[in-house]
C-alpha cells in the first residue's frame, strides 16, 4: 500500500492506495431504462372567438355635393382644368384632372349646370376637402 499526503482546501489528509490484482474487473452495474413518460392529454372545451367589433369606415369626401360645390376627394396637384367660369356642364363631365399618388384622377361635375367659379388654377396643390369648382344648376 502506498501512502500519500493530500492537501484539500488547506486541510491535510493521509490517503492510502492499494494496488488490485491484474485481473481485477470493473464492477458491472445493471440498470433498467425507465419507460418514457407519456404526457396526459389536455382536454379543453372549444370556445368560440369573441365577436369582432365592427368599425365604420370614415366618410370619404365626395367629388361633388348636391349644391354643386366640387371638393377635392384627396390631396394632390391640379394638372389640368377643362372648364372656365360661365361654361355649361353636364353631370359626369370632366371638370379637371387631379394628380394624386402618381395617378391622374378625373374630377367630374356633380350635376347639370353652369360653372359659377373655378377656385383653383393649374399646378395648384390642394388638400382633401378643398373647394375646387362651384357649379350652379
Spell out the key features of this protein.
137 residues; mainly beta; OB fold (Dihydrolipoamide Acetyltransferase, E2P); four-stranded antiparallel β-sheet; rod-shaped
Number of strands: 10
CATH superfamily of the domain at 61-136: RNA polymerase II/Efflux pump adaptor protein, barrel-sandwich hybrid domain
Tell me, what's the shape?
Answer: rod-shaped
Series of H and E elements: EEEEEEEEEE
Strand order of the largest sheet: 3-10-8-5
Helix tally equals 0
CATH topology of the domain at 61-136: OB fold (Dihydrolipoamide Acetyltransferase, E2P)
What's the level 1 CATH class of the domain at 61-136? Answer: Mainly Beta
Radius of gyration: 45 Å
Mean pLDDT equals 83
Largest sheet: 4 strands, antiparallel
Residue ranges: pLDDT <50 for 5 or more in a row? 60-65
**Architecture per CATH nomenclature, i.e. the level-2 architecture of the domain at 61-136:** Beta Barrel
Between the first and last Cα atoms, what is the distance in angstroms? 124 Å
Supply the helix-strand structural class.
mainly beta
Measured as a percent range, the helix fraction is under 10%
Amino acid at each position: 500500500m502506498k501512502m500519500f499526503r493530500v492537501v484539500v482546501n488547506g486541510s491535510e489528509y493521509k490517503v492510502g492506495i492499494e494496488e488490485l490484482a491484474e485481473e481485477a474487473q470493473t464492477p458491472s452495474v445493471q440498470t433498467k431504462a425507465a419507460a418514457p413518460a407519456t404526457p396526459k392529454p389536455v382536454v379543453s372545451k372549444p370556445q368560440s372567438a369573441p365577436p369582432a367589433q365592427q368599425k365604420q369606415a370614415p366618410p370619404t369626401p365626395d367629388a361633388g355635393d348636391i349644391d354643386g360645390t366640387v371638393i377635392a376627394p384627396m390631396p394632390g396637384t391640379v394638372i389640368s382644368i377643362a372648364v372656365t367660369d360661365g361654361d355649361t356642364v353636364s353631370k359626369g363631365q370632366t371638370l379637371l384632372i387631379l394628380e394624386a399618388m402618381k395617378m391622374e384622377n378625373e374630377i367630374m361635375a356633380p350635376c347639370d349646370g353652369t360653372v359659377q367659379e373655378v377656385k383653383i388654377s393649374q399646378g395648384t396643390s390642394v388638400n382633401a376637402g378643398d373647394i375646387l369648382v362651384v357649379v350652379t344648376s
